[in-house]
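Researcher: Structure prediction, please.
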Amino acid sequence: MLLLTVLGAVLVLTAVSRVWATGTVAGVTGGTLDVSVTGSTVSGLPTGLALAALAAAVAVFAVRGAGRIAVGVLMTLAGLGVAAGAAVNAGDASALHTEAARKLALAGAQAEQVGHSVWPWLALVGGLLIALAGLLTVRFGRDWPGMGSRYDAPTRKAPVKAGDTPADLWKALDRGEDPTAG
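Model: Predicted structure follows.
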């Protein structure tokens, strides 16, 4: 699960940092200007959801029972959101037109000769890997070991008695008790 999540998130984060669409725009002086947009410019959704999935992968080990299942469901939804966001924006040229208008400082500028790269589809694959990791967590997460009780909050025990030895006082401190209270 952890390997699938990390692999999927790295694939998504790499893909959104690459160019998703390129084109040209006719300049005001008659020349052409090349324009391009990265995946993070096109949509911030895949990046945010991939980071949320990484956080959820860490949280899986900190929770047990129903909490772990809930984290698995959230990971699945995040992965599907990444995949949907990448698929919807794979052929979209609106961000490219916006970039063309920004470069020319003309509101109506449109990019021409628009081309799309394979990076949105790789982000989609990364999202599906994250969703698969979430499904594995939902299905098998109950059987996975969790953090030991060593990391649980200490429970309150009987206070140390006045006649205890110094070693008993140190042991109480090690258990997280306050030997002076009481």
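Model: The mean pLDDT is 84.
Researcher: Thanks, that helps.
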